[in-house]
Amino acid sequence: MELLRCSPIVAHAGDTVEVSANGIAVNGTLVHNTAPRAADSRGRPLTPWRFGNYTVPAGFVWVASDYNPLSFDSRYYGPISVSNIRHHLRPL
After folding, report:
1. Cβ atoms of residues 18 and 64 within 8 Å
2. How confident is the model at residue 2 (pLDDT cuts 50, 70, 90)?
3. Tens digits of residue pLDDT in 63-89
4. CA-to-CA distance for 67 and 71, rounded, in angstroms?
5. Does 3 reside within a domain?
6. Which of 26, 38, 59, 82 has the highest CB neighbour count under 10 A?
7. 3-state DSSP call for residue 3?
8. Is residue 38, in this structure, part of any structural domain at all?
């Protein structure tokens, strides 16, 4: 069974991403609600992506939710290949 996720793209190729205990900052602006958590909602430990500064390479994006602090997104697994994006959603 394929696992699908729906997460907003917060950084594209060429953007600068800083990952820290405060969360994900894109081009110097902190994305709200992205501070990594020590455990998920079931108490299982979570390991954040390595803290540091990154430039998003061509063919990749960073995804994160600024409205759901419990989102499982790039703060834990880093950048994703655009080849893994199946669909694009747009608000109505």
Report:
1. no
2. low
3. 999 998 889 999 999 999 999 888 777
4. 9
5. no
6. 26
7. coil
8. yes
